[in-house]
Amino acid sequence: MGGNLLSNYGEAIAMILFGIGFSNLLLQKNLIKKIIGLNIMDTAVYLFLAEKGFIMGRKAPIVVDGIQAVENYINPVPSGLVLTGIVVSVSVTALMLSLTIRLYRRYHTLDLDEISARLKKEGL
């Protein structure tokens, strides 16, 4: 396995996506855009784990045709981590969106700086 960019393009794309999501999370003031940035970061992590768990020429770890040698199958742990992460990510996204709706109903804006200024004005 080579260490160059062409042979590891999946990992490179995952890192680029993570950077896009992270910069979006830091630079945007709109709460919905921040949530989108966090979801892009989540997706990048899942892509990275899936790329690391994939081995060319191997199959999913389901024993068929009596082949039980470990060398014929991929490691199932990264796939399990990705599935678990997706479930957690959907739950966190739903919670963030519901809190964003509550903030919008109270302050009539999604600008985080404006919400912070109004909170300071209210003394909270």
From TrEMBL:
Pfam families: Oxidored_q2. It is a multi-pass membrane protein. The chain crosses the membrane at residues 6-27, 39-57, 77-99. Keywords: Cell membrane, Membrane, Transmembrane, Transmembrane helix. The keyword Amino-acid biosynthesis does not apply. It comes from the Bacteria. The keyword S-adenosyl-L-methionine does not apply. InterPro entries: CPA3_antiporter_subunitC, NUOK/Mnh_C1-like. GO terms for cellular component: plasma membrane. Belongs to the CPA3 antiporters (TC 2.A.63) subunit C family. This is Cation:proton antiporter. It comes from Eisenbergiella massiliensis.
